[in-house]
Specification:
Elements: E1 2-5, H1 10-20, E2 25-28, E3 48-51, H2 59-62, E4 70-73, H3 83-88, E5 92-94, H4 101-117, H5 119-127, E6 145-149, H6 153-164, E7 168-172, H7 178-184, E8 187-188, H8 191-197, E9 200-203, H9 217-222, E10 228-231, H10 240-248, E11 254-257, H11 264-267, H12 269-273, H13 280-292, E12 298-300, H14 309-327
Parallel strand pairs: 1-2, 1-3, 3-4, 4-5, 6-7, 6-9, 7-8, 9-10, 10-11, 11-12
Length: 336
């Protein structure tokens, strides 16, 4: 059995080696998969590949793997995989659910605190010996209303934390859970009401065809001008241009973003070298992403909310378990 692990980081290497040595023919590839660079010849006969969210595994990529039977995701989300192609070619796709519920929720809170209390701004002013107390006036969380979009496993953890900090919680989700109401005082509401009443909004929804750009120009018009938006879900849940306009025009007060639309173009050198091959929309979003970094009321991190020692260990354990179950003829954590 031949396995190729793409998007591999140094801290994953030892674990993957220990759990693959002597069992499989395997390769560790630090680069992500995308259609700007051809798959290396020695990888093309792989029966199993494992990728992180930085890979973009579309049909042009997949058709280069002639023996592929399984894609083992080291993530919960799977919007970066061409599932239609996989269905047509009998390629199984499995993910790693529930690895980072606490980790991601804690990071969302960290972003919220950073924007509210201007932690990074304070640090930079102090570092540069240009401290202006008027610029560093923050906002308390206690007593404020936190709106949670997506009250799944991660959203529920964020609700627990917000409740502990004395915040009022409203939520928008397809399914209401009585436990959330009883334990944390969550009040379920429709999306527009959440936009209108929330002081802070934290997004914990998966990306689907139905909620692409759910935060658009109309959404920002309904939000408080003092509102702060936190996104540790997927970048495509927010219309980047609309967000930029809302921040610049003070329609909202700030944002903490761990994910961006087309975020891979910000860090993957294949995209930088192949920029002439990017479509118009991707180029526009990349430019706007770059401009977001120039705003003082925005904190942007490189899709790292998942990245704790505990969560990474859970990701790798589940990934190896998924692979071993598949090889033995079973299935677990199937996406399709």
């Amino acid at each position: 059995m031949k396995i190729v692990y793409f998007d591999t980081a140094d801290y994953e290497e030892q674990f993957l080696k220990e759990n693959s040595e002597g069992k499989y023919t395997y390769y560790l590839e630090p680069s992500a998969l995308n259609d700007l660079a051809p798959v290396k010849d020695e990888y093309k006969d792989a029966e199993i590949i494992s990728v992180f969210t930085t890979s973009r595994v579309n049909s042009k990529v997949l058709e280069q793997f002639k023996n592929l039977r399984l894609i083992a995701l080291r993530s919960v989300g799977f919007n970066h995989i061409d599932l239609d192609y996989c269905k047509e070619h009998n390629i199984s796709v499995v993910n790693t659910p529930n690895y980072g519920n606490i980790t991601v929720a804690e990071f969302a809170l960290a972003l919220l605190l950073d924007v509210c209390r201007k932690v990074t701004v304070s640090y930079l002013e102090y570092k540069n010996s240009r401290v202006s107390p008027a610029n560093l006036i923050g906002t308390e969380l206690f007593g404020k209303t936190a709106g949670i979009v997506g009250l799944g496993a991660i959203g529920a953890e964020f609700a627990r934390i917000a409740h502990g900090l004395g915040m009022n919680i409203i939520a928008f989700d397809k399914f209401e859970k009585e436990e959330m109401k009883q334990k944390y005082g969550v009040v379920y509401t429709d999306f527009d009401t959440l936009l209108e009443k929330s002081d802070f909004i934290s997004i914990h929804a998966p990306l689907t065809k139905d909620n692409y750009h759910m935060f658009d120009e109309k959404s920002f018009e309904k939000m408080k001008d003092s509102a702060i938006l936190i996104n540790t879900g997927r970048g495509e849940l927010i219309d980047t241009q609309a967000l930029f306009n809302a921040l610049v025009n003070k329609k909202i007060a700030g944002a903490g973003l761990d994910v961006l639309e087309n975020e891979e173009t910000m860090t993957d050198f294949d995209y930088m070298f192949g920029i002439n091959r990017l479509d118009k929309l991707t180029l526009e979003q990349t430019i706007i992403n770059s401009r977001l970094f120039q705003l003082n009321n925005v904190i942007i991190t490189p899709h790292t909310a998942f990245n704790s020692k505990e969560a990474v260990r859970r990701i790798l354990n589940t990934t190896m378990s998924n692979i071993e179950v598949f090889i033995s003829g079973g299935h677990q954590n199937d996406v399709i």
